[in-house]
Amino acid sequence: MIVNEDTKQQQVKSMESYLSPLVRNIPPSGIRKFFDLANGSKDIITLGVGEPDFTTPWHVREACVYSLERGMTAYTSNAGMIELREAISEYLNDSFQVAYDPKDQIIVTVGGSEAIDLALRALIVPGDEILIPEPCYVPYSPITSIGGGVPVGIETYAKDDFKLTAEALEAKITPKTKVLILCYPSNPTGSIMTYEDWLPIAKVVEKHDLIVISDEIYAELTYGQKHVSVASVPGMKDRTILVSGFSKAFAMTGWRMGYVCAHPELIAAMLKIHQYTIMCAPVMGQVAALEALKHGMEEKDRMVESYNQRRRLIVQGFQDIGLSCHEPQGAFYAFPSIASTGLSSEEFAQRLLLEAKVAAVPGTAFGASGEGFLRCSYATSVAQLTEALDRIGQFLHKLKQES
User: In terms of DSSP bridges, do strands 361-362 and 106-110 run parallel, antiparallel, or are they unpaired?
Assistant: First the structure.
């Protein structure tokens, strides 16, 4: 039987009809979609991927290899190795003054992303509104939609250093509001929240009886002042689901090791989903994560100091070439404004890639409020950052000549 192109097209269309409308209507990641344009291109400097440019420290890798040599290849407890959960509990208490019982308040997950998914699926009743300060990490809204929730953006502004304010939060709350998702230090803006910043937010959260999902994956990457967990604010621990992991601070992105901490009843609900969908995080990754927590702090500190040097370089560099850029106090991203060029974020990023061979992410990939901005990761070498800034400066000069 000969199948012509029209028949093939009909088959493709009919196969799409089997898909869930929730999934079919979710757009692809704005980050991945954009960087597909860079694939195969030569001489591209990439400031886009949110990933450390360091290799996982050798002793962490060695711990994993040794565990395999000893035959540690079986399942662990659904919640994860008790030794790792105890180490996570001790670390959070010592570093951020939040205490969780390793027996029933912590689950080791396949990256922080699984932890966020578990939290939302455990909480959402179809139609619940989930508040998400923007610009924000790309997956929050799609994961909310897949779970049947309604994502509601809360715009934050450069004039406020992209911090969430109590007034902005209050303005978005309705009778259907159930959850507030937070990400500080922020991806993509590098913004942080201080204890004083959290106090009015906590009052609004308590007033409206909300649950908070706090993504603190960049907690170790702060500059000048220490990260403050919203869970450490009086009255907030029991209504906060704290999500974190090992990807950013310990250069372990590909290991996919994360964790979630919360009230025992919330953890029990998330554990049900985790045990049926994942069973447990890979044991060799758990061994590596335990080694990172116990013996990896010096390497972590050296990486943070390197990021801090690059942070100062890129912020000053943007200012020198005429782009305003608020000073990021956390993570490893700069978020310069490109509004003065008259181009949209998408147009600017595409032309920058094609004409200057620099890949960065348009701010709109992180929500509509990211329009007029560009996310640039400084988790790359000083030489690459210097060259990228030079190319961006030349590109800006070209745009001025065109106008």
Answer: unpaired
In this predicted structure, what is the pLDDT of residue 28? 72
CA-CA distances (angstroms) from residue 36 to 21, 40, 333, 353, 370? 25, 9, 20, 11, 20
Residue 262's pLDDT is: 98
Residue 235 per-residue DSSP state? T
- Tally the residues of the chain: 403
Question: How would you write 240-260 as a 3-class SS string?
Answer: EEEEEECCCCCCCHHHCEEEE
Distance CA 158, CA 374 (A): 13
Q: Which of 391, 375, 364 is closest to 326 using CA atoms?
A: 375
pLDDT, position 150: 97
Per-residue pLDDT, 13: 64
Nearest to 388 by CA among 350, 361, 359: 359
pLDDT on residue 81: 98
The CA distance from 226 to 330, in Å, is: 9
Residue in the block written with tokens 């009052």 = 203
Separation in Å, CA 94 to CA 289, 293, 357, 362: 17, 12, 44, 38
Q: How many CA atoms lie within 13 A of 216 on its CB side?
A: 25
pTM over 0.90: yes
Residue 212 gets the label, from left (phi > 0), alpha (psi -120 to 50) or beta, of: beta
pLDDT means per 10 residues, the chain with 403 residues, are 57 74 76 63 84 95 96 97 98 97 98 97 97 96 94 96 97 98 97 98 98 98 96 97 97 97 98 97 98 97 97 97 96 97 95 94 94 96 96 96 83
For residue 5, how many other CB atoms are within 10 A of its CB?
Answer: 7
Concatenate the DSSP letters of all residues of 78-96 into one string: TT--HHHHHHHHHHHHHHH
Collapsing DSSP states into helix, strand and coil, what is residue 336? coil
Distance between CA atoms of residues 34 and 129, nearest Å = 29
178 neighbors 169 (Cβ within 8 angstroms): no
pLDDT at residue 42, as a whole number: 75
Contact present, 255 and 246 (Cβ < 8 Å):
yes
Residue 168, SS3 per DSSP:
helix
Rounded-to-integer distance, Cα 51 and Cα 60, Å: 18
Bridge-based pairing state of the strands 358-359 and 150-155: unpaired
Residue 211 phi/psi, 5-degree rounding, is -100, 140
